Every structure is written in C-alpha cells, then in structure tokens.
Amino acid sequence: MSLNDNWTSQAQHELDKIEIPQNALNQAVMQGARKAKQRRTTLRVAWPTLVAAALIFLFVTSIRVSPAFASAVSQLPGMERIVEYVQGEDDRGLLSAIQNDYYQALGISQEVNYKTLTIDGVIPDEQGMVVFYTIESAEGVEFRGESHKIFANEMNIPSSYNYNNPDAQKQGRFEDTVHFHYENPVDVTTRNYTFEVQLKDAKETTFSIDFELPNPMKPSKVYTLNQDVEIDGNTLHFKEAIVSPRKIGITISYDAENPDTIYNIEKMELRDQKGEVWGTIQNGVTGTFNEDNTEITYYYQSSYFDEPEQLNLFIDRVQALPKGEDYLLVNFIERKVLYAPPYADLKVTVTGDNSLTLNMQQVNDSFSHGTLWTAHTETQEKVFLASEGFSTHNGRHHVEAQYEIDTFLGDTKIEFNAYPHYLDGSAEIQIIQ
Amino acid sequence: MDAELVERAKIRDEVAFLTLIQTVQNDLYRTAFAFLQNEHDALEAVQEVTVRVYQQLPKLRQPAYAKTWMIRIMINYCHDQFKRKRQILPLFNAVERGQTSAAEFPFFELIQTLPIDRQRLLYYRYYIQASIEEIAAIETLPIGTVKSRIHKSLELLRKKSNNQGGDRDVFERQLDFTSSARTGQD
C-alpha cells in the first residue's frame, strides 16, 4: 500500500467516499435534539412553580422575628425589605441565613437606557442563589416575561428560576427577588458571578453586572440515608439529604416493583428534637427529577444555621394510582375518552385535535398541581405537553391542557403528573441523628 | 464557527442549537462512519452525540472551536462503542473492519493503529483541517506538544505504511487468516 504524502488531500479523498444519507441524517439530528430537550425537561418542577400570589398567602403563617433582631437589621440600609420579603415567603431557612450574617450585601449598580439596576445583595450556595435587586426608572418598565440569567466565571449556569413581580408594569423605584436553582451544583469556591436581566421594553434593555462574593460560600452537608420505608405495600427508598444554606434537598426513589405509581407527596415536614417544623418550599422549585425519572429530590426550608441535633422527616398524603390504572386513553380526532381512572370522580372531555379538559374532586385542599404529563401515540411516539392551566373551585380541580402536535392519529395514552388519590398510611424517618 | 450562534445555543436557544448542529452534521456523520463503518451505527451516533452536545454545551469555553469540540465528543463516543463491541464480538468486528475499510480508507486505517489520543490529533488535523492552536485548545495541550505528537505519529505511520506487505505483525496475520476462513465457509 502506498500513501500519498499529502496527508490532508489523502484524508479529504477518503472522506469524500463517505456518502451522506441526507434525509436519515436530518432525522437523526432532529431526534437527538428532541431527546436532549426531553432529558432536560425531565428536570421538571414537580410542584407548581409559580403559584398565584393569592394562593401562597393561604399557607403563610408568618415567621416570628424577635424585636431585637428587627431593630438590629433596620440599622442596615435596605435590610428591612429583605427581612420583610423572607417573612412573606415564610422561609425560615432564608431568615436564619440572614440572622447568621450569610446574606451578602453588594450594592452594585448599572445604568442602561436611563434605567438603573442595583444588586442589593445575594444569598448563595452550591445549588443556587437568591438575588435581591432594585430597578429605578423614570419611564415605565414592562415586566411580562423578562429573563434572568446567572453566570459563574463567565459561563452560563443552566438553571430554573422564579421571581415575583407583583405588577406587570411599574414606574419609579421597585424591588424584586429572583431565586436561581442550578441544574448542577457549582464549586463551593466559586466567587465571581454575572447577573443578567433582560426587560421586555422596546429596547430590550439588558443589564449585565459582574460581582464577586464578599465572603466565601458555605459548603453543603451531605447525609447518606439509604433507608427504605413501606407505605401501603409500596417501598420508598430514601437515598440522601443535602443541607445547604438555602434549602434542604431530600432524594427519594420508588421501587420498580411497587404496585402503585407514585406522583407527589403532599405533606412533608422536617421536625427537630424540640418539635420545630421546617416546611417544604412553597413558591419556586419544590422538586426535581433526575435524568431518567428514577429519583426525585424534594426541597425544604433549610435548617443549615439552626444545626438541629436531630431531624426527622414526616410524610403523608402520598399521591398514587394503581399500576394499570395510571393513565388516560383518548382519541383526539374522534373526541373520545377510552379510559380514565375511576378515582376522585374524574370527568374528561376532549375539546379539540390536541386539547382536553379534566374535572375532578380536589379531595385535599393541599392538592394544587399540574396534573398531566407526557403522552404516547399508538406508534409509541412521545408527545410533550405544550401547556396546562389548572384552577380549583368549590372542592373541584379543573385542568385545561394542550399537547405539542397538530393532530394525533389513533389512540393516545397520557401519563399523569399528579392525581388526588392517596396511599393509605404515613411514615417518618430520621435524617440527622 | 459563528460565536454568537454558539453563545445563543449555550443559553438554550433551541433554534440556535439546531442550526449549530446542522452546520456540522455532515462532519459528524462522516466521522462516525469512518470509525464505525456502517450507516446504521453512524446515524445512531449522530443522534446520541446531538444529545451529548446539548448537555455539555454550557461547558464549552471557546465558541470559535465548537466544531472541533463536537468532533471530539463524536470520536470519544465511537471509541466507547468499540470498547463495548470488542467485549462482545472481538473477532467478528476485527474481520469486518479488515474487509471493508482497508482498501477504501488506507490513511484512516493506519491512524487507527495509534493510541486513541494520537488518533484524535491526526483526525482533527487532516480530516477536519483544524489549526494547531485549535487542537491545542480542545485537547488542553501546549501548542508545542501538539506539533511534536503529530510529527512523531506521522513518522511512525510512514514506517508502518512502508513495511506493509512484507513484514506484517501477528495481529494482521491473524486477521488475514480469519478473513480467508470466513470466505472459505461462504
């Protein structure tokens, strides 16, 4: 065998011999992109991300702040508002972070298009960050769907986030708070960040502010649990608990042999040796699934700074449907419902070529969830939920949903994300002993 | 590579991501085919690498080198596939490769006799025509090291190519034997 000494032309000559099946290749790329998006969306928010403000206040039992602490913080400029906010969120973990001087004041501003954004301060940890900021503007600022981003060392940190914005349009001076929840944790030594906000005004004003944390982050504490709990014939495996300054994440998996498909756990509380209670996160990312949906992590208010000697997790109201009865079968074209679970007085109506409504008994007033999930066509093609709205009224839960395809041919099987039907029983396990 | 497009894809702009993949899909496919030697596996590789690129994109430091970076992900995927297949069907795989590729892809076949990291360097340089600077950045090696490794690898390949026909090593003889044995059975 003799080789051309011009390596590049030899290589190119070899590549030219490879024919490209263009259609199949396009399809492979599209399928890959879809799969990627799907793996990403499996990091779904298990509980409602943005519960309407009115609803949140139903849960609020205001945190007590000692008068001494209240007067101490009011000496610091801007702190009153931050304490007020944390009290409003009813997050004792965040309040405790502030009381323990973990809130990092920044006061860094940037002016763009005659609007000024100031980062008042942050509460950071390896899994995410809370950013408190203020915008001052002579003109009105449109608030619908502006975007927030966070970068570490100039690299975007993929994250989900939630923010408040009580009014869609504001003028003058106003304050907001955004919670970032990172898909993957950052290194505990990360000090340099960039916070970016893009407003939906005519000029799409974008603020981008670099900042360095004044103090180092505190590392998360990891507790390995590896405990199995049985409720109503189903095994729940508690894997680990990660306690960070902002929240506690507890990772659970469900045994594949379980007779029921488990959806959400409506009542979860952490209690210390004195009976003090840390609840779940009420507003924001309250749970995430891992890539292949085999594990779920629930988030609680943090006990990081309180350092309880003992911490127990109490769970109740575990949503579940028996396997084999855990789906909807509909035909969108014929507007027919072929199967619906016989629980909670569920009524299903197919309203269009890709849309349907559900009406069911709410059962517990803690049931407030996006109810539907992915669908499969007869040919096993996966179809994603395009949008879903839900409301509760007079003890009934009402859902309107649309799927991401124009027309479904044949029967379509739809999975649930939540269902107001519960396992019989509750459980308690030790997290810290 | 359009740096702005890469930046947009990095922050999960789906249109930008798709456009980015489409600009390199032919290179990704050819790379996969060169290593895996059949259309089915190559298409599957492109699909899986699309997912991996999406997941790893936020970690990409130099957007200008996105193409070579994606080729690296592809080559690593192909090598993983080899490892798996070898565990299951070592002989069959070797025979297949011997039969189909040697005549059509002599340079590539020679490259495959090198260690994996050297294979990548030569592939980037001659098949993808990446600059030495780009290769150094993607492999996080000093420029001088990239140059000398490519140079030494080519020296080695020149020798191998000249020796072929007369002085075959044991592996090649075995390969030849199993090929003819199969032909005899057919």
TrEMBL record, chain A:
Domain called DUF4179: residue spans: 46-137
TM spans (from-to): 45-65
Pfam hit, one: DUF4179
Domain DUF5643: 220-329
Highest taxon of the lineage: Bacteria
Keyword set includes Membrane: yes
Keyword Glycoprotein: no
Keywords annotated in UniProt: Membrane, Transmembrane, Transmembrane helix
Coiled coil spans: none
InterPro entries with a match to the protein in the record: DUF4179, DUF5643
Protein name listed in UniProt: DUF4179 domain-containing protein
